[in-house]
């Protein structure tokens, strides 16, 4: 199930999904500044989901190789949790872009409240057409956001364009692990449909990066550190997120629950790092 065989997400509809999700979370007390899965170093790690979510941001930060002299672009920045962490940990300036107006408003408010508004700025925009000059950034991160974008090639080409020579790209994406089936597992199909995402073709990822003008630095299957444990944690009966509405789903005929993904080992997560030569 590669981009061409899947229903492509429409940026405007994805923006509306995240507007709704943000408003719901702010109103019902489930608001979280990070909207991504966790990373556990080892299977017996006792880290909580909240800690593991920050660890995944740190896994990206390590590969961004930035300090206080650098400017980072966060593509699909959510409500700014990861970007503020980048600024706090490294001193780098961050510009975040999200297709959701509500997220941008919330992220700028959080930056202001954290006293970081001079280092972290959030803008509404579409990652497919970035409103920045060529060579504007030292690094680009895209944490669990390219999954919603209708054309990975275009997004990566845009990321390469706005990177300075020597600039780093780090991202996470989702894909179907081997052995691949003719028709993906029904839970994967439901997840993709309800959350407007598509699966990447992992076999083509290196070529995708190269066609975008980037040089591969690393491509890792991080599923066993991330996806499987995250769904296990979310599926616990007491987990706030184990409610379809907490995941932004309303008026859908077939709601996705985290427990649907238990044992679905083919639902994979990859980490890619590249550099603009
Ligand atoms: C799962 S959230 C991840 C948010 C953030 N990276 C984090 O980890 O907290 C996906 C993000 O991608 C953004 N997004 C999806 N499609 C986009 C597009 N075409 N242009 C810009 N942002 C987009 C959404 O608005 C949302 O902020």
Task: Walk me through the structure.
Keywords: Methyltransferase, S-adenosyl-L-methionine, Transferase. It comes from Streptomyces diacarni. Residues 33-276 form the Polyketide synthase-like methyltransferase domain. This is Methyltransferase domain-containing protein. Pfam families: Methyltransf_11. By secondary structure, the protein is α/β, with parallel strands linked by helices. It has one domain: 3-Layer(aba) Sandwich (Rossmann fold). 34% of the residues lie in helices and 19% in strands. It is built from 8 helices and 7 strands, in the order ααβαβαββαβααβαβ. It has helices at 11-28, 49-64, 81-90, 101-113, 152-162, 186-195, 205-211, 227-234; strands at 71-75, 93-98, 120-124, 137-142, 163-176, 215-221, 267-275. Strands 3-2-1-4-5-7-6 form a 7-stranded mixed β-sheet, sandwiched between helices. Strand 1 (71-75), helix 3 and strand 2 (93-98) form a beta-alpha-beta unit. Helix 1 (11-28) crosses helix 4 (101-113) and helix 2 crosses helix 3. The longest helix is centred in the N-terminal third of the chain and has 18 residues, at 11-28. The model has no long low-confidence stretch (mean pLDDT 93). The structure holds S-adenosylmethionine (SAM). The site of S-adenosylmethionine (SAM) has 24 residues, from helix 1, helix 3 and strand 2.
């Amino acid at each position: 199930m590669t981009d061409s065989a899947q229903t492509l997400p429409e940026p405007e509809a994805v923006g509306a999904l995240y507007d709704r999700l943000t408003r719901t979370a702010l109103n019902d007390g489930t608001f979280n500044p990070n909207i991504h899965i966790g990373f556990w170093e080892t299977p017996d790690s006792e880290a909580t989901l909240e800690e593991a979510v920050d660890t995944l941001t740190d896994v990206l930060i390590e590969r961004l190789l930035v300090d206080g002299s650098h400017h980072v672009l966060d593509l699909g920045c959510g409500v700014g949790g990861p970007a503020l962490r980048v600024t706090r940990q490294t001193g780098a300036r961050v510009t975040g872009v999200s297709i959701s107006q509500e997220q941008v408003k919330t992220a700028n408010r959080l930056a202001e409240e954290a006293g970081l508004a001079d280092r972290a700025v959030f803008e509404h925009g579409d990652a497919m057409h970035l409103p920045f000059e060529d060579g504007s950034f030292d690094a680009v991160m895209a944490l669990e956001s390219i999954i919603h974008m209708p054309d990975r090639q275009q997004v990566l080409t845009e990321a390469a364009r706005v990177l300075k020579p020597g600039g780093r790209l780090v991202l996470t994406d989702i894909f179907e692990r081997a052995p691949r089936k003719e028709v993906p597992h029904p839970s994967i199909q439901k997840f993709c449909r309800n959350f407007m995402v598509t699966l990447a073709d992992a076999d083509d990822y290196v070529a995708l990066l190269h066609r975008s003008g980037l040089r591969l630095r690393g491509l890792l299957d991080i599923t066993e550190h991330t996806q499987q444990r995250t769904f296990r944690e979310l599926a616990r009966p007491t987990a706030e997120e184990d409610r379809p509405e907490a995941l932004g789903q309303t008026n859908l005929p077939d709601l996705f629950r985290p427990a649907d993904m238990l044992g679905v080992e083919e639902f994979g997560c990859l980490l890619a790092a590249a550099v603009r030569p």
